[in-house]
């Protein structure tokens, strides 16, 4: 099995050996895309672990989410309004909640814009005629050759984008996202792992500390990213929540739950 996984990941340009025991890549098969994540049996784990996630080949849309019952019509209209006003947003939720699907569906509304998407592993299914995908790269076994999200954001400034989007922020990428939105390209989005809407500002505070960003960035984040769309579950029933990011009087981030309010 190890050789099979190694062959798959090698086709994605990913090393999978003792020097690089954790790898992440994708494989296209027919109309579907599969994300492959593997951890080599070594000092990291006793046995090799492989996870495969299937992504549908077709690009999601807000209209499609409404038609399938996964989103209410007024909610989709509210997201369209956020996009039209060029206001940036985060999509939060736990693993498998549908964050990437919602982000892609929102971005696929921008049919007449040049959108640059920065990801570690290509996951966003896009149908835009002018979309440009840029992927980060891990360092090689010698520790050189890395291409970070921050590196790619700097390159986007020379590519005349209408909007810049990061597939996910889970570490120091928060600095790259803030730089992209503050550089005159508002209206982008990203995803973030969080178990609840209220947990999002806590996650953001941790990421800001991890990136060692100054207090001015924390204070300006609600203006850069005013909206949070959270995907959760309540007793097995999907729940969609909308929040507004803001700065509390104490100087820390918080989110206002806009239950029942229009976006």
The H-and-E topology, N to C, reads as HEEEHHEHEEHEHEHHEEE
Regarding CATH, which class of the largest domain? Answer: Alpha Beta
Q: Give the second-level CATH assignment, the architecture of the largest domain.
A: 3-Layer(aba) Sandwich
Q: How far do the termini sit from each other?
A: 49 Å
- Give the tally of structural domains: 2
In terms of structural class, how would the helical and strand content be classed? alpha/beta
Q: Quaternary state, please?
A: single chain
Helix percentage:
25-40%
Provide the descriptors you would attach to this structure in a database record.
2 domains, globular, 3-stranded antiparallel beta sheet, 263 residues, 11 strands, alpha/beta
Produce a short descriptive summary.
The protein is α/β, with parallel strands linked by helices and 263 residues long. Helix content is 29%, strand content 27%. It is built from 8 helices and 11 strands.
Explain the overall architecture:
The protein has 263 residues and is of the alpha/beta class. The protein folds into two domains: 2-55; 62-257, Rossmann fold (3-Layer(aba) Sandwich). It is 29% helix and 27% strand. The protein has eight helices and eleven strands. It has helices spanning 2-11, 62-67, 73-84, 99-107, 149-156, 173-182, 200-210, 215-224; strands at residues 22-29, 32-39, 49-55, 89-93, 115-119, 132-135, 163-166, 189-193, 227-234, 237-247, 253-257. A five-stranded mixed beta sheet has the order 8-4-9-10-11. It has a three-stranded antiparallel beta sheet with strand order 1-2-3, with helices on one face. Strands 6-5-7 form a three-stranded parallel beta sheet, covered by helices on one side. Helix 5 (149-156) packs parallel to helix 6 (173-182). The protein is globular and about 50 Å long. It starts with a helix and ends in a 6-residue tail after the last strand. The relative contact order is 0.12. The model has no long low-confidence stretch (mean pLDDT 88).
């Amino acid at each position: 099995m190890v050789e099979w996984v190694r062959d798959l990941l090698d086709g994605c340009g990913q090393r999978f050996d003792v020097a690089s025991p954790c790898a992440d890549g994708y494989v296209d098969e027919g109309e579907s895309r599969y994300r492959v994540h593997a951890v080599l049996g070594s000092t990291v784990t006793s046995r090799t672990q492989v996870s495969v996630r299937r992504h549908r080949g077709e690009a999601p849309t807000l209209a499609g989410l409404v038609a399938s019952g996964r989103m209410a019509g007024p909610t989709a209209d509210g997201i369209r309004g956020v996009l039209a006003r060029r206001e940036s947003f985060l999509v939060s939720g736990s693993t498998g909640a549908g964050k990437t699907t919602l982000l892609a569906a929102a971005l696929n509304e921008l049919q007449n814009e040049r959108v640059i998407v920065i990801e570690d592993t290509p996951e966003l299914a896009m149908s835009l005629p002018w979309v440009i995908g840029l992927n980060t790269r891990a360092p090689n076994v010698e520790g050189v050759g890395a291409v970070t999200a921050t590196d790619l954001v700097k390159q986007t400034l020379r590519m005349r984008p209408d909007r810049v989007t990061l597939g996910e922020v889970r570490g120091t990428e928060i600095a790259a996202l803030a730089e992209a939105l503050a550089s005159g390209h508002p209206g982008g989005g990203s995803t973030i792992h969080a178990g609840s809407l209220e947990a999002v500002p806590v996650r953001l505070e941790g990421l800001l500390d991890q990136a060692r960003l100054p207090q001015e960035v924390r204070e300006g984040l609600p203006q850069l990213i005013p909206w949070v769309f959270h995907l959760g579950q309540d007793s097995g029933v999907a729940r969609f929540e909308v929040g507004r990011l803001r700065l509390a009087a104490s100087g820390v981030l918080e989110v206002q739950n806009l239950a029942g309010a229009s976006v």
